[in-house]
């Protein structure tokens, strides 16, 4: 994740801006609530959710552990299908390859479907710089592009834009005042995009999964724009994170069971397309030329790192964003990077080689563990966030009191297996908050808990205050832990757990 | 850039890519702390969990489940007695929607529907039956696309179409309405039953495009307000027939 990012402001400053934006906070909370409920319902409908998650983890971990083998297989098979495969170690290299193709094709317009990798590469800017017009064709991405912004949610990119703002952006593009109802706005985009699909010289897609044994790329989407850009333009370029591989089509069933359910609660996205090479001789549509650019850009730094290798298991569903109390309050832009939420908080620093480049993004988390619980491939995101903070301290990047706090944390939690217990308690504490999205009154016995910032922040404490506390804690000596206080806290949390369970009924998703 | 110069450049690019590939993959192996893996590693966790592989519905249940799930996704699904009824259904819907041009895949079963006769005054075209025609423009101008499903899946309510010379991807994508004929014998319970067929077929046998279609095109990007037909067909008919 190198490349220019909004590093001028700190996470705290961006978070404060986000907190001042009432619409943003309401919209993010409403949307994440909707997506989270849908995920829980879909998981319950599917049944045996834990077994599916475990199988997802097994397949992803197996593939990543043998990534050199499977990438080799994929590249050879994709070439045998007639595709041109490229390897890019850095963002710059990936951009250079794409621009070289666009230039030699004499391309004037690129129609893009959703691709987080192209966001990561800042490819649109690079294309514009050589006079090629990139057009985002996913409805949400198009809105965000017209606003000159970046996506704030991995699944719903325009989560932060309201209807009025959307109508204004589209009206400006239409050159006339459009009605603000969804069908009218959508109809305009449909008409406009048809011209784009038919006129574009290059279609560009991302890649959800790549099947090693047949050299196929698989794209999940709901609108049909990814199908358009991989059917109509003469040249297709697909950008693919190098970890997107799975061995076989059989393994795709597991990913297809986990991804849409975890992202939006759908049984399957409306379209799931497996593309194996360019159009065959005699075909009447499909690209004549297919390029697949396999991008590292910091991903390989996680390989062989026992604490972070599983980060490459991520299938980019966004479930961790929807349950994260921090994301739900500050939205995606506050993270200041391509990927937001818990996964972004780990990806951004983890994908950087240089410790000096780490900023405070890993601190934008309450370590409550809800992210790991929601993750369909069981990435221990909260453990990773703790590790990042530890590494930051070890590297001497944190202020001294934080170092002290980490020592206390290590002393209290070290070797006793209590950390997981504490994180679990924290998660349970968050459930009432997470259930209805309303910030409840501060819970008395938990007031002292947050003095130790490594502990889960209690639910019920308004985030604004929690954030302030987190900052204050950096600047003062950590209080020592009184065993009597701990007993009371644990008792209080057990009580809340029981209450939460009786209230929640069938909402558990591991049934 | 001339075509020939471009081809030459592309060949050089491919050669460079192959050189890069070795260094790239060597680097990954080094990171993983072992030599390159060149033999297929044992993959004990292939595919769905075992309990799921045993899940199989009867034909009647598959039909029922497909219809319920397709409708839940915003599509329209019906069980029809036979091809004749399917032909009448498609013709009636085309009239209802005021379709002036219809495009269908080049397939004997679809030809047997006799849509040309049932829809006088409607331009019925067969994908790619004339190399001189601009078929993408034809599909874009059609009000309805008619396809024969290669497979279908009850659990996810998916219509599966494989691309071929006579089976353009555009037919199921560009017209605002889609009608898919699904013979009951092609309707499976689980996604995996269809996906593993592609493993069995192997790379050489796969078409360029394999498309799972599970309802009308949709988006909720404007204030979470679900809307259909944003790019692909907003109307999707799945017609299950005993054929």
Number of domains of chain A: 2
User: How much helix, percentage-wise, in residues of chain B?
Assistant: 25-40%
The CATH topology of the largest domain in chain A turns out to be Rossmann fold
The CATH class of the largest domain in chain B turns out to be: Alpha Beta
Compressed to H and E, one letter per element, the order of chain B equals: HHHEHEHHEHEEEEEHEEEE
Which ranges of chain B are low-confidence, i.e. pLDDT below 50, for 5 or more consecutive residues? none
SS class of chain B: alpha/beta
What is the architecture of the largest domain in chain A at the second tier of CATH? Answer: 3-Layer(aba) Sandwich
Quick summary of this structure?
The complex is a heterodimer of chains A (511) and B (243). Chain A has 511 residues and is α/β, with parallel strands linked by helices. Helix content of chain A is 50%, strand content 9%.
Describe the structure.
The complex is a heterodimer of chains A (511) and B (243). With 511 residues, chain A is α/β, with parallel strands linked by helices. Chain A folds into two domains: 48-297, 3-Layer(aba) Sandwich (Rossmann fold); 304-507, no CATH class. Chain A is 50% helix and 9% strand. Chain A has helices at 11-20, 22-46, 49-65, 67-80, 91-104, 116-121, 123-129, 139-146, 163-174, 182-199, 225-229, 249-263, 319-323, 325-330, 341-350, 370-374, 381-394, 400-413, 418-436, 463-474, 483-504, and strands at residues 84-88, 109-112, 133-136, 202-205, 209-211, 216-221, 235-241, 245-246, 271-275, 289-295. In chain A, strand 5 and strand 6 form a beta hairpin. In chain A, helix 2 crosses helix 12 (249-263) and helix 19 (418-436) crosses helix 21 (483-504). The longest helix of chain A has 25 residues, at 22-46. Mean pLDDT of chain A is 81; it is low at 1-6, 404-467, 469-482 and 501-511. By secondary structure, chain B is α/β, with parallel strands linked by helices. Chain B folds into two domains: 1-41, no CATH class; 57-241, NagB/RpiA/CoA transferase-like (Rossmann fold, 3-Layer(aba) Sandwich), CATH 3.40.50.10420. Helices cover 36% and strands 21% of the residues of chain B. Chain B contains eight helices and twelve strands. Chain B has helices at 3-31, 50-53, 59-72, 83-96, 108-111, 115-118, 135-141, 191-201; strands at residues 76-80, 101-104, 123-126, 144-148, 151-153, 158-162, 177-183, 187-188, 209-213, 218-219, 227-228, 235-241. A six-stranded parallel β-sheet of chain B has the order 1-12-7-4-2-3, sandwiched between helices. In chain B, strands 8-5-6-9 form a four-stranded mixed β-sheet. In chain B, a hairpin with a 4-residue loop joins strand 5 and strand 6. The longest helix of chain B has 29 residues, at 3-31. At the A-B interface, helix 2, helix 3, helix 4, strand 1 and helix 5 of A face helix 1, helix 7, helix 8, strand 9 and strand 10 of B. Strand 9 (271-275) of chain A pairs antiparallel with strand 9 (209-213) of chain B.
